[in-house]
Design goal:
The structure holds two protein chains of two kinds.
Chain A (H helix, E strand, L loop, with lengths): L1 E2 L17 H7 L4 H9 L22 H6 L3 H12 L3 H4 L3 H10 L15 H27 L8 H14 L8 H8 L5 H19 L7 H21 L7 H42 L1
Helix pairs in contact in A: 2-7, 4-6, 4-7, 7-10, 8-12, 10-11, 11-12
Chain B lengths: L3 H23 L6 E4 L2 E4 H15 L3 H9 L2 H13 L6 E5 L5 H24 L5 H13 L6 E6 L2 H14 L5 E5 L12 E7 L8 H11 E12 L5 H23 L2 H13 L3 H10 L3 E8 L4 E7 L2
Parallel strand pairs in B: 3-4, 3-6, 4-5, 6-7
Antiparallel strand pairs in B: 1-2, 7-9, 8-9
Classes of the chains: A mainly alpha, B alpha/beta.
Pfam family, one (chain A): COQ9
Keywords (chain A): Lipid-binding, Mitochondrion, Transit peptide, Ubiquinone biosynthesis
Protein name (chain A): Ubiquinone biosynthesis protein
């Protein structure tokens, strides 16, 4: 039986490592757009990356305390972000997290805060990428609204969104198969699936999907399929700048667009055949 | 069947109450009172008594551990080191480490991690010049532990003596040092160690809060506190069986194997007097540790508490 930390009655003492939030605010400019975004969608299981100012009381009982110092979660995010640069060398593992902790001036033992298979590191990275994607899509939408750019046709939009998102994997592409296999472990499937579905939902939202019927489900299912298959193709693609992958993506998106037409064609052909048969039956009898 | 221990406990408590009465009648500023098993004693008395207990059991400590726990204590200690997951270069302080069980396991673990690391490095470096290859061999020889070190600290000379003998016997020499010291007042500087462990020792510390504060002091920022200790069983059936075993079997084993009934009676009583999981967790948090949680082993017979200095 494992017991998790519940909000403790903590005396206000100077923590060894948890920084004052005010210090952080000076260092990193707030990404204001991301805050708004995450409120309107089904939230990611991870809070947004990086300190965003005084957070609602999560660990401390006293309101004062949580405003002054970052919470443990924020420190964990900092460690995971620092750990990402060690992934190409150590893979998605506790070793990378330990190296990341060391760059922040912490002992390598701090990696013990995380699961030993590195799954939190992967989920953190995926969540970070999704946030970046959302920001980019929103910026583009703003530009279209202001008239600075033209509105893209749906298939082009989807292709570009998926390509941008998959390109974020390129620095880690060698170790990404390892990450995918870890994400398939039973205890990671819920969180991984959650992140995937919210990303796909994001993309369709910015593509302008406003369906309220069963189309909502089919569209997301189709895009999820496209994304996953393209990701797998990218894993074993060795062409310069992954040209083969983008061509594969183009074909799949075109197929998906045609799927709608094909369905209608099948239906009308079917109706025509049935009418013909009925007519034949009437003539004969 | 469980009738024996309540009687003894009652007797002890009455004796303790009498003593307390005498103390207040005398009107002296009595020393802070604490417990020794089910007796009530002053803190100084308690320290002395515990010192004597371990002085007398030191020689047979390992044998008794094996017979009392049927060898399961080895698994518990293995789990502790696995949970620690130390990487090469880690500095471990093992307090109340006496006979060195945790220290040896730590060294084994780090050694095997280091070997795996070196193998992986070799696989990647297929095209090295002869110069580089010979350099890497020299480096490997001197770094089989990768700079990891463990300091075993114990308050009892006899336990340290037994530990040193064991180390010699098993062939552990590198990265190991033995220090005589009190957990309530460690002879080390601030911010020195990556991990602080105390396995089956914190129960015998008279002022647990002081020991926790010392642990916080000597750990580096980001360092980890790990405590392996007997704890409370909430399952009623297991609790009854456990009590039966503890009070009927263990002191008898103590008498038969080590010739010392009283020490093992103390052991069993001290387990019952030790704070349960949640209370110990609160004490650890009070010392300033973050992300404190515990893991029950064997339904609560033993618990591993972990905290970080953040």
């Amino acid at each position: 039986v494992r017991c998790r930390l519940s909000p403790p009655q903590r005396p206000l003492q100077a923590s060894a490592v948890l920084r004052r939030v005010s210090d952080e605010q000076k260092k990193e400019p707030l990404a204001s757009s991301s805050q708004q975004q995450l409120d309107s969608h089904p939230a990611d299981p991870q809070p947004e990356q990086g300190p965003q100012g005084p957070r609602p009381s999560y660990t401390g009982q006293g309101g004062q305390e949580s405003e002054d110092y970052e919470s443990e979660e924020q420190l964990q995010h900092r460690i995971l972000t620092a750990a990402l640069e060690f992934v190409p060398e150590h893979g998605w593992s506790a070793e990378a997290i330990a190296e990341g902790a060391k760059t922040l001036g912490l002992s390598a033992a701090a990696a013990g805060m995380f699961h030993s298979d590195g799954s939190e590191l992967i989920l953190h990275f995926v969540s970070q990428c999704n946030t970046k994607l959302s920001e980019l899509l929103e910026q583009e939408q703003k530009r279209v609204q202001l008239g600075e750019a033209e509105k893209k046709p749906t298939d082009q939009f989807l292709r570009d969104a998926v390509e941008v998102r998959l390109r974020m994997l390129i620095p880690y592409i060698e170790k990404w198969p390892q990450a995918l296999s870890i994400l398939l472990l039973p205890h990671n499937i819920p969180s991984g699936l959650n992140l995937l579905t919210s990303m796909i939902d994001d993309i369709w939202h910015y593509a302008g999907d406003q369906s309220t019927d069963f189309n909502w489900y089919t569209r997301r299912a189709v895009l999820t399929g496209i994304y996953n298959t393209t990701e797998l193709v990218m894993m074993q693609d060795s062409s310069p700048d992954f040209e083969d992958t983008w061509r594969f993506l183009e074909n799949r998106v075109a197929d998906a667009m045609n799927m709608g037409n094909t369905a209608n064609q099948v239906q009308s052909t079917g109706e025509a055949v049935v009418q013909g048969l009925m007519g034949a039956a009437v003539t004969v009898s | 069947a469980v009738g024996l221990w309540p009687c003894r406990a009652l007797l002890a408590r009455r004796g303790g109450a009498l003593r307390a009465l005498c103390g207040s009648v005398r009107g002296l500023a009595a020393e802070p009172e604490t417990h020794f098993g089910f007796q009530t004693v002053t803190e100084a008395e308690r320290r002395e008594k515990i010192y004597k207990v371990f002085e007398s059991v030191a020689e047979k400590y390992d044998v008794m551990n094996d017979s009392m726990t049927l060898g399961i204590h080895r698994v518990w200690k293995d789990i502790l080191v696995h949970k620690m997951n130390p990487s090469p270069g880690t500095l471990l302080l093992d307090v109340a480490g006496g006979t060195g069980d945790i220290a040896f396991r730590f060294i084994n673990y780090v050694r095997s991690v280091r070997e795996r690391q070196l193998q992986r490095k070799l696989k990647h470096h297929q095209n090295l010049s002869w110069q580089e290859i010979s350099e890497s061999y020299q480096e490997d020889k001197s770094k089989s532990l990768g700079d990891s070190q463990v300091v075993v600290c114990d308050i009892n000379k006899e336990m340290l003596k037994v530990g040193k003998q064991k180390a010699q016997h098993l062939g552990y020499s590198e990265g190991l040092s033995w220090v005589l010291g009190n957990a309530e007042e460690l002879p080390f500087d601030d911010d020195k160690f990556d991990v602080y462990t105390i396995a089956f020792g914190i129960r015998n510390v008279t002022r647990i809060d002081l020991a926790l504060q010392e642990a916080y002091r000597v750990l580096k920022p980001g360092g980890r506190f790990l405590c392996l200790e007997f704890s409370h069983v909430s399952n009623p059936l297991l609790s009854r069986l456990y009590d039966l075993y503890s009070f009927q079997v263990i002191p008898v084993l103590g008498e038969v194997i080590a010739g010392d009934w009283k020490s093992y009676q103390y052991l069993v009583e001290s387990i019952r007097r030790f704070p349960p999981q949640e209370e110990l967790k609160a004490m650890i948090e009070d010392a300033g540790f973050f992300k404190v949680d515990y893991q029950n082993l064997n339904l609560g017979i033993v618990a591993i508490h972990s905290g970080f200095k953040l």
